[in-house]
Design brief:
It is found in: Cell membrane. One of its GO terms (cellular component) is plasma membrane. Keywords: Cell membrane, Membrane, Transmembrane, Transmembrane helix, Transport. With 245 residues, this protein is an all-alpha fold. The protein has one domain. The protein contains eleven helices and no strands. The two termini are 27 Å apart. The relative contact order is 0.22.
Length: 245
C-alpha cells in the first residue's frame, strides 16, 4: 500500500468516526481525525482537515439551523479572528513535527477537560475567550471544537449542534483563507481533504440513528479514549524522530 493510500484509508476511517461523533454530539471530527492525519501525513495538515471542518457543519445546519445562538456566535467569532492569526504564526514558524506535538498536547488537554466535565459559565467573556483559543488550535492543528463545546456543554442538544456547526463553518473558512494567505495550504492538502469528504458524508448519515438510539456521552467517552491514544502515539513518534535527528 502506498503512503497516499495509507493516508486515505486510515485518515478516511478517522474522518468517518469523527463525523459520526460530531453529527451526534455537535463536535469531535477534528478531535478524532486530526491526530491520525497528522501522524500519517504531517505536510497535509492542517489544510486537509479544515476542508472537512468546513463542509461537515453544513449538513447539521441544513437540519437544525433554527437553533443557532447568534449572540454567542458573534462573541466566538470576535475572539476567533485574532486567535487564527496566532495559529497561522505557529504554522509558519514551527515545523510539522513540532505542530504534531502541539496537536497531541491540545488533544490530551481537551480529553482531560472534557472527561472531567469542567463547568464553564457561558457569557460574553468566556465565549470570546473560547473563540480565541479555538482560533489558535483550529488554525494550527485543525482541532478547534473543545473550547467552544465546553462553554456550551449545558445547552440543549439541538442548540449545541447548531451553534457549533455555524461556528465551525465560519472558523474553517477563515482558517483556510489565512493558511492560503501565508502560503501554508498546498494543493495536495486540498485534494486530500476533498477525497475525505466521502467518508465524512457516510459518517454523518450513520450519525442520525446513533443520535436517536445511542447515548452521546458513551460515544464521546469511547472516542476521547481513541483520540488520547492517537495523541500519545503522536508524541512518542515525534520524540523518537527528534532523538534520531
Amino acid at each position: 500500500m502506498t503512503h497516499a493510500a495509507l493516508v486515505l484509508a486510515f485518515g478516511g476511517l478517522a474522518v468517518f468516526v469523527g463525523a459520526i461523533v460530531q453529527g451526534s454530539v455537535g463536535f469531535g471530527a477534528g478531535l478524532v481525525a486530526a491526530p491520525v492525519l497528522t501522524l500519517l501525513g504531517p505536510d497535509l495538515m492542517p489544510g486537509a482537515i479544515q476542508v472537512v471542518n468546513m463542509v461537515l457543519p453544513l449538513f447539521t445546519l441544513a437540519v437544525e439551523w433554527r437553533r443557532i445562538d447568534w449572540r454567542g456566535i458573534r462573541f466566538a467569532v470576535l475572539g476567533r479572528v485574532p486567535g487564527s492569526v496566532v495559529g497561522a504564526v505557529i504554522v509558519v514558524y514551527f515545523s510539522a513535527y513540532t505542530r504534531g506535538v502541539f496537536v497531541a498536547v491540545m488533544v490530551l488537554i481537551a480529553v482531560g477537560l472534557t472527561a472531567r466535565a469542567l463547568s464553564v459559565p457561558r457569557n460574553g467573556a468566556t465565549v470570546t475567550a473560547a473563540g480565541f483559543v479555538s482560533g489558535v488550535t483550529g488554525t494550527a492543528t485543525g482541532i478547534g471544537g473543545p473550547p467552544i463545546a465546553l462553554v456550551y456543554q449545558h445547552a440543549k442538544g439541538p442548540q449545541i449542534r447548531a451553534t457549533l456547526a455555524m461556528f465551525f463553518f465560519l472558523s474553517a473558512a477563515q482558517s483556510i483563507l489565512v493558511l492560503a494567505v501565508v502560503g501554508e495550504l498546498p494543493p495536495q492538502a486540498l485534494v486530500t481533504g476533498a477525497v475525505l469528504l466521502v467518508p465524512m458524508v457516510l459518517g454523518f448519515l450513520v450519525s442520525s440513528p446513533v443520535r436517536r438510539y445511542v447515548d452521546g456521552g458513551k460515544v464521546r467517552t469511547a472516542v476521547l479514549i481513541v483520540a488520547a491514544a492517537s495523541a500519545v502515539v503522536l508524541i512518542v513518534q515525534n520524540a523518537a524522530m527528534w532523538l534520531l535527528n
